[in-house]
Amino acid sequence: MNRSRLLKSAQEPVRAILGDRLALVGLAVLMSIIAMALFAPFLSTHAPLAVNEREEGSIFTRTLEGEQVRWEALPPLGDETLNAADYRDGLGMAVGRNGVVWRYAEGDWSRLDTPLTTTLNAVNIREDGATLVAGVRGTVALWTPDDSWRTYDMPEPMGINGIVWLDDSTALLVGGGEVIWRLDLPRGEVETLASPVGRGFDLNAVALDVDGSAWVVGDRGLALRLDPEDDSVSLERLPGNRALNHIHFADSGAGLIVGERGTLLIREDASARWQSQNAPDSRAIRAGWITDEGHAFAVGRSGIIFEREPGADWRLVPSSEERHLRALMVTDEHYFAIGSDRFVNRLAPPSGEHWFGTDHLGRDLFSQNIHGSQIALLVGFLGATLVVLIGANVGLVAGYFRGRTETVLMRTVDVMYGIPFEPFALILVLLFEPSLFIVILAVSLLTWRTVARLIRSQVLSLRERPFVKAARVAGASDLRIMYLHIFPNVMPLVFLELAIIVGVSIIAEATLSFLGLGPPQSISWGGILHNARLSGAWREAWWWNLPPGLLIMITVLSVFFISRSLELVANPRLRARR
Question: Are residues 334 and 477 in the same domain?
Answer without folding.
Answer: no
